[in-house]
Each structure stands twice: as C-alpha cells, then as structure tokens.
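Section 5: illustrative case.
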C-alpha cells in the first residue's frame, strides 16, 4: 500500500516547479555626495554587495524565487536571524519577478542611511520603447515628447508610449505650474534620442532653492538572452 501511494505521488513531485527567480536593477535617486555608494542587500538567507548608482541603473541582480523581505545593511549580519530591526527594508511578492529597487536618502536611519521602494518592471507593465514617469513634486507638469502628450499631476505616475519610431531624435517641450498659479513655466525644450529597444523610467524631482523641477530619465536596455544549444 505504501509503495502504491509513493507511485501516485511521484507524478506530482515531477511536475512541481520551483518559484521563478527575481531580477532587479537598483537606482539611488538623487543620492547625496556623502551617502554610501555600496551596501549589502540581504534577502533573508544571503547577503550580496550591491552598487547604488546615482546616474544610471545598476547591473541586473539575480535574487531567489518566492516572497522576499529585502534589507539593506552596512555589513553582512553575523547571524541571519538577527538583522537589526531598524534596517531599511521592503517586501517583494512572489509574482513580482522583475523590478526596480529605488533607493532614496534617509540620514536618520542609523543602520543604513537609506530607504527603499519597489517598482514593478514586469514586461506586462513596461514595454520596450515606453517610459514610466513619476512626478515627485507639487508641480503639475505637461507637454509633448515627440508624438506623445504628457500630463502628469503632482505625486503621481503615468506610462507613456514610444514618442517616435526607430532609433532617432525627437523634440521635447515640457512645462510646469506652480501651485495656485495658472501660468505655464518652461521646464525643458530640447531633443532626446529614442532607443526602441529600451524601456525607461523618468523622475520629476524638486531641488532645494530652485523653483524649477528637475527631470531625470534612466534607460533600461538588456541584452537578449542567448539560447543554449542542446
């Protein structure tokens, strides 16, 4: 009888699939000069040193599958079960297999002077040629990027389709408003280069002592995976 039950269970075990791994790229948005350039990313079992670039995304990091509770530490923990309770952290759902880890400054945190936020980078959320815009200011922003029209309210996000076709330049004309003032102020009048292979993330941020917001765009191009020969 036991042998019969074992035989019945074998097909289920054979078809059981391991949870897909997570992939992420890291960005330290507007990080101050005295902030760390590298930290330890702890996934609950393993620590790895990660770069915290300011002007571009990091390389792609591979993380284990399943739900994760990520922590950033200044040094690997001696005991994985005793991570400092104040360590900056963020939860990652099992189904969120590709994401951006957005790091911002938090000088008040004694464990690591940062905080983290997860941005879904799944192919169903952000496609090649598209740009995910975040307005982190109190200013409404609008204008045109090539063939696309951008209207983004304060503290909101919007995804914009490709501004043109092919690998070519396109005109950018953006304006902003000051709260309580209907006048339009110029924000950006230039030309950008479109790469249809890349998806991008753009941030509109405030700068201390400056009335005009700042626009920062980060492209994410990844080399196609090579198929393994049989």
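Designed sequence:
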């Amino acid at each position: 009888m036991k042998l019969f039950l074992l035989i019945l269970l074998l097909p289920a075990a054979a078809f059981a699939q391991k949870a897909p791994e997570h992939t992420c790229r890291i960005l330290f948005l507007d990080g101050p000069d005295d902030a760390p350039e590298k930290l330890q990313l702890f996934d609950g079992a393993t620590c790895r040193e990660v770069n915290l670039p300011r002007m571009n995304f990091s390389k792609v990091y591979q993380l284990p599958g399943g739900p994760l509770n990520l922590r950033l530490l200044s040094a690997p923990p001696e005991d994985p079960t005793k991570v400092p309770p104040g360590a900056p952290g963020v939860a990652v759902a099992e189904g969120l297999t590709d994401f951006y880890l957005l790091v911002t400054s938090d000088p008040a945190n004694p464990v690591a002077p940062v905080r983290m936020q997860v941005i879904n980078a799944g192919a169903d959320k952000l496609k090649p040629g598209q740009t995910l815009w975040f307005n982190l200011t109190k200013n409404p922003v609008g204008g045109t990027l090539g063939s696309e029209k951008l209207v983004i309210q304060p503290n909101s996000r919007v995804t914009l389709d490709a501004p043109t076709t092919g690998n070519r330049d396109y005109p950018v004309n953006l304006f902003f408003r000051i709260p309580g003032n209907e006048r339009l102020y110029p924000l950006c009048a230039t030309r950008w280069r479109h790469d249809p292979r890349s998806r991008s993330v753009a941030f509109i941020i405030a700068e201390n002592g400056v009335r005009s917001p700042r626009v920062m765009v980060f492209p994410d191009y990844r080399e196609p995976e090579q198929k393994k020969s049989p």
